Recover the amino acids of this structure.
Protein backbone atom coordinates (compact mmCIF):
# COMPACT_ATOMS: atom_id res chain seq x y z
CA UNK A 1 0.00 0.00 0.00
CA UNK A 2 2.76 2.49 0.88
CA UNK A 3 4.52 1.92 -2.45
CA UNK A 4 1.29 2.87 -4.22
CA UNK A 5 1.42 6.24 -2.42
CA UNK A 6 5.00 7.00 -3.44
CA UNK A 7 6.88 5.52 -0.48
CA UNK A 8 9.58 2.99 -1.31
CA UNK A 9 11.40 1.30 1.58
CA UNK A 10 14.09 -1.33 1.93
CA UNK A 11 13.68 -4.23 4.37
CA UNK A 12 15.15 -2.38 7.37
CA UNK A 13 12.32 0.19 7.14
CA UNK A 14 9.48 -2.34 6.80
CA UNK A 15 8.99 -2.98 10.51
CA UNK A 16 5.32 -2.08 10.98
CA UNK A 17 3.79 -5.23 12.49
CA UNK A 18 0.37 -4.13 13.71
CA UNK A 19 -1.89 -1.12 13.44
CA UNK A 20 -5.24 -0.61 15.10
CA UNK A 21 -7.48 2.36 15.80
CA UNK A 22 -9.64 3.59 18.66
CA UNK A 23 -11.52 6.67 17.51
CA UNK A 24 -8.86 9.11 16.31
CA UNK A 25 -6.04 7.33 18.17
CA UNK A 26 -3.74 4.89 16.40
CA UNK A 27 -1.88 2.09 18.13
CA UNK A 28 1.18 0.56 16.53
CA UNK A 29 3.62 -2.25 17.06
CA UNK A 30 6.87 -2.07 15.10
CA UNK A 31 10.08 -4.09 15.15
CA UNK A 32 13.52 -3.98 13.61
CA UNK A 33 14.43 -6.97 11.46
CA UNK A 34 16.90 -9.48 12.90
CA UNK A 35 19.50 -8.19 10.44
CA UNK A 36 19.76 -4.90 12.39
CA UNK A 37 22.29 -5.34 15.18
CA UNK A 38 23.00 -1.71 16.12
CA UNK A 39 19.77 -0.70 17.94
CA UNK A 40 21.68 -0.11 21.17
CA UNK A 41 23.57 2.73 19.49
CA UNK A 42 20.43 4.86 19.22
CA UNK A 43 17.92 6.39 21.59
CA UNK A 44 15.34 5.14 19.12
CA UNK A 45 16.63 3.53 15.93
CA UNK A 46 15.67 5.72 12.93
CA UNK A 47 14.23 2.78 11.00
CA UNK A 48 12.06 1.84 13.98
CA UNK A 49 10.73 5.39 14.34
CA UNK A 50 10.08 5.53 10.61
CA UNK A 51 8.13 2.26 10.79
CA UNK A 52 5.96 3.77 13.55
CA UNK A 53 5.31 6.81 11.35
CA UNK A 54 4.09 4.57 8.51
CA UNK A 55 0.92 4.13 10.56
CA UNK A 56 0.06 7.80 10.10
CA UNK A 57 0.22 7.42 6.33
CA UNK A 58 -1.65 4.12 6.25
CA UNK A 59 -4.47 5.42 8.46
CA UNK A 60 -4.72 8.75 6.64
CA UNK A 61 -7.89 9.69 4.81
CA UNK A 62 -5.71 11.44 2.27
CA UNK A 63 -6.22 10.72 -1.40
CA UNK A 64 -2.50 10.08 -1.79
CA UNK A 65 -1.96 13.50 -3.36
CA UNK A 66 1.52 13.83 -1.92
CA UNK A 67 4.15 12.24 0.24
CA UNK A 68 3.87 13.12 3.94
CA UNK A 69 7.15 13.78 5.77
CA UNK A 70 7.71 14.88 9.36
CA UNK A 71 9.57 18.18 9.39
CA UNK A 72 9.29 19.52 12.94
CA UNK A 73 9.65 17.84 16.32
CA UNK A 74 9.09 19.25 19.79
CA UNK A 75 9.12 17.97 23.36
CA UNK A 76 11.10 14.84 22.48
CA UNK A 77 12.03 13.16 25.76
CA UNK A 78 13.95 9.88 25.54
CA UNK A 79 13.83 7.71 28.66
CA UNK A 80 15.49 4.51 27.42
CA UNK A 81 17.73 3.40 24.56
CA UNK A 82 18.24 0.44 22.28
CA UNK A 83 14.71 -0.88 21.72
CA UNK A 84 14.26 -3.30 18.85
CA UNK A 85 10.47 -3.68 19.31
CA UNK A 86 8.17 -0.81 20.29
CA UNK A 87 4.53 0.00 20.71
CA UNK A 88 3.22 3.49 20.06
CA UNK A 89 0.13 5.60 20.54
CA UNK A 90 -0.45 8.31 17.94
CA UNK A 91 -3.12 10.96 18.30
CA UNK A 92 -3.94 14.16 16.40
CA UNK A 93 -3.18 17.39 18.24
CA UNK A 94 -4.40 20.00 15.77
CA UNK A 95 -7.37 19.13 13.62
CA UNK A 96 -6.74 19.46 9.91
CA UNK A 97 -3.00 20.12 10.21
CA UNK A 98 -1.67 16.58 10.27
CA UNK A 99 0.14 17.35 13.55
CA UNK A 100 0.27 14.37 15.88
CA UNK A 101 1.54 13.44 19.33
CA UNK A 102 3.43 10.16 19.49
CA UNK A 103 4.18 8.18 22.64
CA UNK A 104 6.57 5.28 22.16
CA UNK A 105 7.34 2.50 24.65
CA UNK A 106 9.56 -0.52 24.36
CA UNK A 107 7.89 -3.84 25.08
CA UNK A 108 9.03 -3.77 28.70
CA UNK A 109 7.06 -0.59 29.30
CA UNK A 110 9.37 2.42 29.84
CA UNK A 111 9.21 5.07 27.15
CA UNK A 112 11.99 5.12 24.59
Amino acid sequence: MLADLGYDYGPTFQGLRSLWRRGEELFVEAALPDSVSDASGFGLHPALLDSVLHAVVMASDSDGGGVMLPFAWSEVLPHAVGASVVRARIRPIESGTGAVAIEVADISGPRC
